[in-house]
Design goal:
Thrombin, subunit H, 20 strands, single chain, mainly beta, 2 domains, 1 helix, four-stranded antiparallel sheet, elongated
């Protein structure tokens, strides 16, 4: 019994330790070193997989590197840095998400939209909620509910859901009429729970 308790405790410590270290998969798939979030006092930065500090801890908060950029907070505003720690998009947003398919969700004045990797507004900041792009579509929320837009900002699946997940292998899970439902990228119901 004691041996089993020790094994469970050891497994829990290993899981917690693994979850505590966030790897940023920036470029790991194309041969570049991964970057890991580090904390010094109340500031955050990044190290590589050899333990070398690549970006000194100087940010209030950081996100993961995706598509070569990571969201950061400076003086309460969100922006983006590149993998060398240079400002890529000036901190001016209330929130900032990870880049996905060339776009990242940001907000200003309580409304959300998307910027491209140059920091230009690619899709107007007019939504209540925004999700990451996946398979060419992103869930957005308006006063009518959740729907999906394409990367040009055109509504591809009209707002009709109370919740909406990301597409994976051509399927997204949504909630409509208090039921979890699966839809395809054409908005057609594939399965509706009873």
């Amino acid at each position: 019994m004691k041996k089993r308790m020790f094994s469970l405790a050891l497994a829990s410590i290993m899981i917690i330790g693994t979850l505590g270290m966030t790897a940023c998969s920036s470029g790991a798939e194309d041969g570049k070193k991964e970057l890991f979030v580090i904390q010094k006092g109340d500031k955050y930065g990044f190290m590589d997989n050899t333990g070398k500090i690549v970006i000194e801890p100087k940010f209030q908060t950081v996100g993961e590197f995706k598509e070569g950029l990571a969201p950061i907070v400076v003086e309460g505003k969100w922006g983006y840095i590149d993998e060398k720690g240079n400002t890529a998009i000036k901190p001016e947003f209330e929130t900032a998400g990870n880049f996905s398919e060339g776009l990242a969700a940001v907000s200003k004045d309580g409304k959300k939209g998307y910027v491209d990797n140059d920091g230009k507004i690619a899709i107007e900041l007019k939504y209540d909620e925004t999700g990451e792009f996946s398979e060419g579509l992103a869930a957005v929320k308006t006063e009518k509910g959740y729907g999906y837009i394409d990367n040009s900002g055109k509504m591809a699946i009209k707002e009709q859901f109370t919740m909406a997940g990301a597409f994976e292998n051509g399927v997204a899970q949504v909630t409509k009429d208090d039921k979890w439902t699966y839809i395809n990228k054409g908005g057609e119901v594939l399965y509706s729970g009873e």
